[in-house]
Amino acid sequence: MTPEEALEKARSLNFDLVEVAPQAKPPVCRIMDYGKYRYQQSKKARGAKKKQAVIQVKEIKLRPKTDEHDFQFKARHVERFLRGGHKAKITMMFRGREMVHTELGKRLLDRLTDVMKEVGLVEQPPRLEGRNMTMILAPRPEGKTGPAKEAVKE
Fold first, then answer.
1. At 106, is the secondary structure helix, strand, or coil?
2. Of 3.40.630.30, 3.40.50.300, 3.40.50.12160, 3.30.110.10, which CATH number belongs to 57-140?
3. Is the pTM of this model over 0.85?
4. Superfamily of domain 1-36
5. Of the candidates 85, 86, 61, the residue with the CA atom closest to the CA atom of residue 73
6. Each residue of 1-12: pLDDT tens digit?
């Protein structure tokens, strides 16, 4: 029908004439209550937002001279973050002459990666930015196990 006829019919029913597909030949329109439609769309969007999971990035700070017990303590924290579904940012801080031996910090971060391979995977490998070396670990997707667990099952 012509646009004038459609508009007249929509007005007689107390509805709106809404253009659905303007690129179609001829354009497609629909007679509907546009306010009610917008309200339903906002309700759907709110429902979807309520169901989505929020992933936080938790941070742990280490030093190259971190002792064994402190390393284990921090590793347990990282494991708890990853099991909770959060990402973990590990920051290796270098002070003074420690900058000359950044490989010690890299070794410590690699060791942490090995300890966490069952619960997390490296999202961003260790990268030196100024006096800090950062690495980001993400939780392993559900149902997928690390190489260590697969070896045990066989």
1. helix
2. 3.30.110.10
3. no
4. Translation initiation factor 3 (IF-3), N-terminal domain (3.10.20.80)
5. 61
6. 888 888 888 888
